[in-house]
Amino acid sequence: MYDVIIIGAGPAGISASLYVKRANKSVLVLYSGESQLEKAHLIDNYYGFPNGISGKQLFEDGIAQAEALGVEVKKEEALHVSMNAEMRWDVATTEGSYEAGAVIISTGNKKLKPNIKGIDAFEGKGVSYCAICDGFFYRKKAVAVIGSGDYALSEAADLENIVEKLTVLTNGKPAPKGCKYNVIEKKIKEIKGDERVGCVEFEDGESLEVNGVFVAEGVAGGADFAKKIGIATEGDTIKTDSHMATNVPGVFACGNVTGGLLQVCKAVYEGAEAGLSAVNFLKEK
Q1: Rounded to the nearest 5 degrees, what angle is found at the Cα of 279, between the Cα atoms of 76 and 285?
Q2: How far is the C-alpha of 261 from the C-alpha of 7, rounded, in Å?
Q3: CA 76, CA 98: separation in Å to the nearest integer?
């Protein structure tokens, strides 16, 4: 059990963890995959680095700084955030589940949308990005989940007791390890239908009749977590107040997931604000 769980270990998440830990609160940072920061070859517009620094080095130095202060950092993919019976937050990962009084989302605003013809045209008309949000509308119907990782399996698990037929489409990638669902590994050519999704056509010319398609490629982004627990979003960004609080008490967001200037300096500031706000929230409970 922790006071605060932070999802994301970039500049925003690590900055938040430093302020939470310095307030003598227990904090867990969860992260997975390669961050946008790590992909930056050279950062030469951030204060204190006259010769610049690679994004990968800055990312690793941030985690090392947090761990040196006593922050617990785990490389585990977060899959779900939910409220439990004790009115505390449960964060489920690929390795287990953790509980906290407050959650800070700092995962970035990435949305891995596959380059499949028809996916944009049918958004809201059979193409969805949230099984918990929209699964009910497909009860007793046939649906497909596009994805090849743990996040795709997590979305499939949310649908299996609702829909009549469930298929995982890996879009040419190997099937997820431990997948118990019907899997098709063929490359997808197009999502087709009239006014709504009717089928998925593969590059070999064959097709699969479905009423809905749930996109779950890669890992869950900030907006994915937000939609599942009723946090207000705008596109793929999370809406917050000036203190980085969302409309859901006890949940805060910072960094690229809030939109605006996608720079390290903004992420660090918002992380600090989110960390302090989470501490204040716990004090007032």
Answers
A1: 110
A2: 20
A3: 11
Integer angstrom CA distances of residue 201 from 99, 193, 205: 42, 10, 7
Residue whose tokens read 């008309």: 125
Phi, psi of 233 (to 5 degrees): -130, 165
pTM: 0.79
Separation of alpha carbons 102 and 200, rounded Å = 40
* Over residues 95-114, mean pLDDT: 87
3-state secondary structure of 216: coil
pLDDT of res. 221: 77
Task: Choose among 78, 81, 80: nearest CA to 32.
Answer: 78
Strand-pair partners of 117: 190
SS3 118: coil
Query: Which position has the token pair 């409220």?
Result: 83
Q: Helix 11-22 and helix 264-284: axis angle, to 10°?
A: 40
* Gap between the Cα atoms of 96 and 242, Å rounded: 33
Helix (H, G, I), strand (E, B) or coil at 265: helix
Instruction: Please give the angle made by the CA atoms of 94, 99 and 105, to the nearest 5 degrees.
Output: 70
pLDDT at 112: 62
Owner of token pair 């596959």? 114
Phi, psi at residue 279, to the nearest 5°? -60, -45
Number of H helices, E strands in the chain: 6, 17
- Structure tokens, 137: 């509308």
